[in-house]
Design a protein that fits this description.
The protein is an all-alpha fold. It has a single domain, classed as Up-down Bundle (Methane Monooxygenase Hydroxylase, Chain G, domain 1), CATH 1.20.58.60. It has six helices and no strands. Helix 1 packs antiparallel against helix 2, helix 1 packs parallel to helix 3 and helix 2 packs across helix 6. The radius of gyration is 20 Å and the shape is globular. The relative contact order is 0.11. GO terms for molecular function: ankyrin binding; cadherin binding; structural constituent of cytoskeleton; structural constituent of muscle. It holds the Pfam family Spectrin_4.
Length: about 180
């Protein structure tokens, strides 16, 4: 049992490092696009930033599941790994928020960006569209997870049930943390 949990710790360390690299890449691309906006040019890497953030989000969800199995197994590094993954999650939320505010909702329009948008024939997104889209994505996430929980199989043997229970607890914790942020 301890050996299996130690393999989970090793996996968490490796994959959290990969996730951090993914977030670094997304942040670097985002900052480059923000500099382009400030210079009056159109962002070039928005789709890539969004793709990197989505990949990091998926990785963090899996990491939280692994952390939960450590905590369920009362591994001594469970809390440390939880804090590490939680910091990655906070960084993801921070980068995604900056992305939504700066790129998706459209940065303040300068004369140069207005001319660029007009000559390109592109419609500038309304300020309310990005937050609304973000809320729609969050609602879709909630609905998808509700469906997964409602229709999910728990398994036929104890280890499988424990694994699914750990994943469910991780999801429950993520929802409770998100709820607390929404209520602030």
């Amino acid at each position: 049992r301890l050996e299996r949990l130690q393999r989970v710790v090793t996996k968490l360390q490796m994959e959290s490092g990969l996730c951090e690299e993914q977030l670094n890449q997304a942040d670097a691309l985002l900052q480059a696009d923000i500099r382009l906006l400030a210079a009056g040019k159109a962002p070039q890497k928005a789709a890539e930033v969004e793709r990197d953030l989505d990949k990091a989000d998926a990785m963090i969800r899996l990491l939280f599941n692994d952390v939960q199995s450590l905590k369920d197994g009362r591994h001594p590094q469970g809390e440390q790994m939880y804090r590490r993954v939680y910091r990655l999650h906070e960084r993801l939320v921070s980068i995604r928020t900056e992305y939504n505010l700066r790129l998706k909702s459209g940065a303040p329009v300068t004369a140069a960006t207005a001319v660029t948008a007009a000559t390109a024939g592109q419609r500038r997104p309304e300020p309310d569209e990005a937050p609304l889209r973000y809320l729609q994505e969050l609602l879709a996430w909630v609905e998808e997870n509700q469906r997964r929980v409602a229709t999910g199989e728990w398994g036929a043997d104890l280890p499988t049930v424990e694994t699914h229970l750990g994943a469910h607890r991780g999801l429950h914790r993520a929802i409770e943390e998100f709820r607390a942020k929404v209520e602030r």
